[in-house]
Amino acid sequence: MSTVKYWQAVNSALHEELERDGTVHLFGEDVGAPGGPFAATRGLRERFGEWRVRDTPISESTFTGMAVGAAMAGLRPVAEVMYFDFITLAMDQLVNQAAKMSYMSDGAFAVPLTIRTLCGGHRGSGPQHSQSLEGWLAAVPGLKVVWGGTPSDAKGLLKAAIRDDDPVVVIESLSLWTRRGDVPDDPDHTVPIGAGLIRRPGTDVTLVCWGDTVPAALDAAGSLAERGVDAEVLDLRTLSPLDEALILRSLHKTGRIVVVQDAQGPCSVGSEVVRIAATEGFADLRAPAAQVRPPFAPVPFAPDLERAYYPQAADVVAAALDTIERTRA
Length: 329
Fold this sequence. Notes:
Layout: E1 2-5, H1 6-20, E2 24-28, H2 44-48, E3 53-55, H3 60-72, E4 76-81, H4 91-98, H5 101-104, E5 114-119, H6 134-138, E6 144-147, H7 151-163, E7 168-173, E8 180-183, E9 197-200, E10 205-209, H8 214-226, E11 231-235, E12 238-240, H9 244-254, E13 257-260, H10 269-279, E14 290-292, H11 303-309, H12 313-325
Parallel strand pairs: 2-3, 2-4, 4-5, 5-7, 6-7, 10-11, 10-13, 13-14
Antiparallel strand pairs: 1-8, 6-12, 9-11
Helix pairs in contact: 1-7, 3-4, 8-12
């Protein structure tokens, strides 16, 4: 076990998979000699050469389409979209090509493509570099979507995505980029896609989180414990397919659920979790399911406004206490 920063865990995952499998290739803006805009590919071009670690023009649609074709031709490409917001420029390649190719070809073509992209929220990056668009992608059949909230999960999910035979979008958190955590040294350490994790067991209320919201949920659980409330923290890790069984098991135990997300509310992953709780888990609900989420507005640029915009631990505590107060007799 080693203690490393989030970005170092990502770099290690890429290094190990390039070393393990000669069909793994990296594409993206500045992923080569500069080592990536945020250092995630540092040292990889020097080790594996420019043929396998390839800089591209500033055209997400072009290099994503190139990666889709490379995947169909037998490679395992990893394409980096610098900011999550910019994935909108490659939606045709992802949604209409990569996600549907296996289905439309009756399995004749696989698309073992990994898209790495970074969410810039909580850093004063402004409305065009801070969006959480996971709900868009999670609604597309044929795409898998994952988001690690710790260095260990960031590494394990990325390695699992690269080894997967389906297209996977791996979201990473710039707000957690320098946060340290323990990561297994085993080069075959992966995190199963589709499996959530109970980060903190509890009996009174379930706090559902992922990605950027994991620290806030854990901090809130600590504050709730000081008030005598035993909160369970459930980290989804995979947003499509959701671990519905784990959500329902946790709800069965606690009877209450609060979903914490950085994405706006309508048509979101959090909305889907609430739907699961309100339908499949209705008999276990002792209080209405709740969401803690930003207002339906663009992300502010000013730091004070951005802090007010995103859910904080205090907001999660307030929502959990309100849910407990609204418990049905």
